[in-house]
């Protein structure tokens, strides 16, 4: 049985909650403990409320988990929101000089810290975080040295800062250990060597490893982390990183680079992706390899810029006018983001088409521990059918109609191999047929040629596999990042004796139709996804003719926790065919004053 | 820069045999011919030469060239071309489009392309109408003007492309006229040879839809400064003592003076139409700026940068980066 604890750190943006969380995550990782972090935050630079959740465990964790059982309230607001949702056995740490606790639920240990006394009256306000972190680490039973070594690592160029932090943390540590009862859950050190990485960093690293040499972007949450990673590492890795005027320019620039033979990529979120869509069709008809990431957030329009949703599947499937082959892949975990980038660049070049990657806020901005050996993996670069030198062929046709539909590609610069590429329909030589009276024969041939390319793609995928109780007649179906919470929910249900299996999809277009039918036909199918309309359920029906018997959906902005899925599946097994779950804890609720549309009458009635 | 052929090819070598379907009398013919002549005279290998086009009548130009070509999206020729040039600076890239394509739907990209100073020429075919969609007003048609497709006169003011280019950072700015073949060819060559982002705005008649500014109108003599003096409407400013070339880019006085003069000339409105080189300055190009930031680019173009070994295993070393995440 895994030992785990979920820590919540609440404060306003600018309070230093994020670095407190980072320090705790690193301290835990140093002890060989696995961590999964998700931050719920607002779209502002200072103020508001952010709630950093760290799930810390002595075994691997795939999601954010359910119940917070230790909290640090950096301000009164955090205390007022979150204390109520703690359950017996939880601890609540706060600056007793500043924050008033109110009434704690039964069995919750309040741990006020006399910060002025512990850190000294002249200490910077930010030191309250360090005192609190020291106290938490003490009550979790960590060695103090694990924390102090993180300060030494983080501030290695500033010994004075190290000393100030270590002193404050030690004061908090000693005070807490002496004054309060330790947390009931004891996390034992493990020998695991771990790194702590954001999903966006893994997407960027995966791309770099696959040979991405041009990256274009316009800043958009929650995809911006990829741009930041590229901008800081492009110099050493030889990657051209460009911030472009808008996403239309981004997509066209990335495709222009792809046309010249570079492995190029761009990333954005739903709104930016909408601007890129016309160019996606261009890559389709010109058969230009390009990888485009859409890190989904709550939509539509500006929607929820800092919240989770899997609502852009329809947009990706329908991106751009007309029929053309595209590949759509949704990674299922932070670690899988790396594999997906490797696969995406190979598939884009092999099949000469746009590859759209659907990440989401939970995966991209979430971070988790990965093994130190994570990068030691088997991966071969496959650039597909390329002509890199003059082979004497005087009749080179760029869009040659071949049995596979794949036409060998010349990278411009090879002598005597000239061609034109057009966004217009064209013949095998690339010459447009849009301007002739009509040419149904060439048109059909070229549409067929491009479509035929997709027949080979599914063979390159990793086959689908049932997880959980594979013999079960009930199958929970998810796509993309929902794998994490769903796999844990299924595991819990199996332990309770509920027979249920889990099938997770990451390859969305082209679809593993035959495998899906083989695994799902005749079973009770429950689709679990993060949107209102059931976009994946519809996709499953369209592609495999399998209609979900029931659906569990969430679209309130906060990610699935395993408990939501457990609860949803139980409701389904009782007979419901649609369960819409939501995050209902008091901490998630925000009172709203009336907006400008409500006129004040100056008196109340 | 593309390499130079030891034995230059004839103009015919740059002409494709694709049927040309522009209207008779279209200014596009003059521009196409001048582009083909320029490529031949510069001795460019066709396989290292790229002509990228936008959408519209002008967008068909790539079909008639025996070089590499791309017909991009409406208004997006510049970002596409910038991406291509970024990927392989060794190619000679000429972007071509119409005034609707470049100054209308593509105006945002037009502005930002100037800021980057990519080493390429952008030729805009300006005829004041959207020809292929039957003659609607383009952004260069003046207010109050009514070409034959318009049921009512134009209510918008015309954009001043050269002034916009100047404000946006283009480092070579010129204008020519489609049917002055000699001047046009020389201007295209200058724009291509300029190291940096060059805008060449080429005025041209649309014989089908622009019944205001016809070939006859461009060729008409207008009143000059002297009494009863009649002068050509289109006049070359460089032949009349105007010099917009900055000699010393570090001399701010010279830069300011020449920019101010160029701005005045670019905004000139009247019966006469100035053509020629309005402004020119030598500034670091996009690839020079990139190379200064990413040293590996001095050795390799992104398109040729190695990232796999002989057995196709990736060679990008991420272990140091990954160490940043280890504690």
Notes on the structure:
The complex is a heterodimer of chains A (605) and B (327). In chain A, the strands form four sheets. An eight-stranded mixed β-sheet of chain A has the order 6-5-4-1-3-2-14-7, sandwiched between helices. In chain A, strands 9-8-10-11-13-12-21 form a seven-stranded mixed β-sheet, with helices on both faces. A six-stranded mixed β-sheet of chain A has the order 18-20-19-22-23-24, sandwiched between helices. In chain A, helix 7 (199-210) packs parallel to helix 8 (224-237), helix 9 (247-259) runs parallel beside helix 10 (270-286) and helix 15 (483-495) crosses helix 18. Chain A has 605 residues and is α/β, with parallel strands linked by helices. Chain A has 18 helices and 24 strands. The longest helix of chain A is centred in the first third of the chain and has 21 residues, at 159-179. Chain A has four domains: 4-192, Pyruvate-ferredoxin oxidoreductase, PFOR, domain III (Pyruvate-ferredoxin Oxidoreductase, domain 3); 197-372, Rossmann fold, CATH 3.40.50; 385-460, no CATH class; 466-586, 3-Layer(aba) Sandwich (Rossmann fold). Chain B is an alpha/beta fold. Chain B has a single domain (11-299), classed as Rossmann fold, CATH 3.40.50.970. Chain B is 31% helix and 17% strand. Chain B has helices at 27-41, 77-87, 99-105, 107-116, 161-168, 181-193, 215-219, 252-266, 286-293, 296-299, 319-323, and strands at 49-53, 68-71, 92-98, 120-126, 129-130, 136-137, 172-177, 197-203, 221-223, 230-232, 234-236, 273-280. An eight-stranded mixed β-sheet of chain B has the order 2-1-3-4-8-7-12-11, sandwiched between helices. Chain B has a two-stranded antiparallel sheet with strand order 5-6. In chain B, helix 6 links the parallel strand 7 (172-177) and strand 8 (197-203). In chain B, helix 1 (27-41) packs across helix 6 (181-193) and helix 3 crosses helix 4 (107-116). The longest helix of chain B is centred in the first third of the chain and has 15 residues, at 27-41. Chain B is globular, with a radius of gyration of 22 Å. The model of chain B has no long low-confidence stretch (mean pLDDT 96). The interface between A and B is large, with 75 and 61 residues.
């Amino acid at each position: 049985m895994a030992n785990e604890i979920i820590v919540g750190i609440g404060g306003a943006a600018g309070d230093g909650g994020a670095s407190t969380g980072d320090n705790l995550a690193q301290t835990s990782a140093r002890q060989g403990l696995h961590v999964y972090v998700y931050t719920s935050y607002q779209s502002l630079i200072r103020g508001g409320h952010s709630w950093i959740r760290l799930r810390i465990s002595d075994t691997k964790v795939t999601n954010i988990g359910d119940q917070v059982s230790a909290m640090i309230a950096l301000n009164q607001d955090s205390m007022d929101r979150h204390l109520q949702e703690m359950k017996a056995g939880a601890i609540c740490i706060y600056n007793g000089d500043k924050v008033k606790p109110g009434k704690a639920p039964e069995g919750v240990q309040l741990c006020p810290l006399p910060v002025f006394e512990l850190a000294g009256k002249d200490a910077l306000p930010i030191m309250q975080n360090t005192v609190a972190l020291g106290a938490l680490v003490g009550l979790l039973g960590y060695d103090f040295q694990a924390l102090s070594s993180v300060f030494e690592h983080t501030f290695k160029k500033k010994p004075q800062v190290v000393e100030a932090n270590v002193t404050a943390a030690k004061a908090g540590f000693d005070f807490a250990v002496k004054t309060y009862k330790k947390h009931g859950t004891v996390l034992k050190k493990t020998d695991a060597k771990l790194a702590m990485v954001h999903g966006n960093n893994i997407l960027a690293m995966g791309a770099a490893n696959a040979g991405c040499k041009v990256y274009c972007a316009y800043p958009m949450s929650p995809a911006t982390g990829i741009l930041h990673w590229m901008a800081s590492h492009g110099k050493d890795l030889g990657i051209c990183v460009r911030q472009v005027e808008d996403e239309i320019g981004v997509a066209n620039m990335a495709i222009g680079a792809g046309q010249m033979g570079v492995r190029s990529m761009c990333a954005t979120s739903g709104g930016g992706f909408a601007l890129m869509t016309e160019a996606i069709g261009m890559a389709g008809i010109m058969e230009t390899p390009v990888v485009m990431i859409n890190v989904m957030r709550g939509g539509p329009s500006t929607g929820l810029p800092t919240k989770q949703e899997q609502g852009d599947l329809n947009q990706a499937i329908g991106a751009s006018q007309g029929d053309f082959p595209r590949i759509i892949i949704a990674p299922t975990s932070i670690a899988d983001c790396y594999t997906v980038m490797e696969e995406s660049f190979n598939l884009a070049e092999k099949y000469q088409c746009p590859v759209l990657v659907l990440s989401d806020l939970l995966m991209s901005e979430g971070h988790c521990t990965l093994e130190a050996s994570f990068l030691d993996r088997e991966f071969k670069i496959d650039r597909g059918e390329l002509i890199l030198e003059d082979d004497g062929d005087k009749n080179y046709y760029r869009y040659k109609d071949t049995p596979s539909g794949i036409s060998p590609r010349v990278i411009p610069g090879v002598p005597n191999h000239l061609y034109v590429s057009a966004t217009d329909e064209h013949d095998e030589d690339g010459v447009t047929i849009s301007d002739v009276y009509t040419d149904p024969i060439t048109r059909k041939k070229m549409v067929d040629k491009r479509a035929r390319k997709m027949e080979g793609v599914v063979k390159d995928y990793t086959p689908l596999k049932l997880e959980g109780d594979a013999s079960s007649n009930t199958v929970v179906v998810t796509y993309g990042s929902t794998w994490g919470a769903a796999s844990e929910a299924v595991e819990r249900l199996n332990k309770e004796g509920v027979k249920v299996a889990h099938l997770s999809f990451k390859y969305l277009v082209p679809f593993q139709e035959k495998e899906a039918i083989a695994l799902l036909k005749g079973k009770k199918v429950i689709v679990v996804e993060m949107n209102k309309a059931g976009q994946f359920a519809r996709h499953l029906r369209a592609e495999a003719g399998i209609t979900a018997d029931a659906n569990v959906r969430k679209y309130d902005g906060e990610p699935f926790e395993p408990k939501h899925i457990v609860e949803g599946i139980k409701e389904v097994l009782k007979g419901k065919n649609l369960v819409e779950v939501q995050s209902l804890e008091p901490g998630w609720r925000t009172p709203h004053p009336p907006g400008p549309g409500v006129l004040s009458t100056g008196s109340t009635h | 820069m593309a390499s130079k052929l030891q034995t230059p090819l004839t103009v015919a070598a740059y002409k494709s045999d694709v049927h040309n379907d522009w209207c008779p009398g279209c200014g596009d013919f003059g521009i196409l011919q001048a582009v083909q002549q320029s490529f031949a005279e510069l001795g460019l290998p066709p396989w290292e030469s790229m002509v990228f086009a936008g959408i519209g009548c002008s967008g068909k130009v790539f079909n008639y060239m025996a070089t590499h070509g791309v017909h991009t999206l409406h208004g997006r020729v510049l970002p596409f071309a910038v991406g291509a040039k970024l990927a392989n600076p060794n190619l000679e890239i000429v972007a071509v489009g119409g005034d609707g394509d470049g100054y209308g739907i593509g105006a945002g990209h037009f502005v930002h392309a100037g800021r980057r100073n990519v080493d390429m020429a952008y030729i805009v075919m300006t005829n004041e109408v959207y020809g292929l969609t039957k003659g609607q007003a383009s952004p260069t048609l003046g207010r109050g003007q009514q070409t034959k497709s318009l049921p009512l006169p134009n209510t918008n003011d015309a954009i001043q492309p050269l002034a916009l280019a100047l404000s946006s950072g283009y480092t070579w700015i010129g204008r020519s006229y489609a049917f002055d073949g000699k001047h046009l060819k020389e201007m295209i060559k200058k724009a291509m040879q300029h190291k940096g982002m060059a805008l060449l705005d080429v005025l041209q008649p649309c014989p089908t839809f622009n019944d205001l500014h016809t070939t006859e109108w461009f060729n008409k003599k207008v009143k000059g400064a002297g009494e009863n003096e009649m002068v050509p409407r289109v006049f070359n400013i460089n032949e009349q003592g105007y010099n917009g070339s900055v000699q010393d880019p570090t001399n701010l006085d010279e830069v300011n003076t020449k920019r101010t003069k160029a701005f005045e000339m670019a905004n000139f409105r009247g019966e006469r139409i100035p053509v020629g080189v309005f402004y020119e300055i030598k500034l670091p190009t996009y690839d020079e700026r990139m190379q200064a930031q990413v040293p590996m680019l001095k050795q390799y173009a992104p398109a040729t940068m190695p990232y796999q070994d002989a057995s196709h295993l990736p060679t990008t070393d991420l272990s140091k980066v990954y160490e940043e995440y280890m504690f």
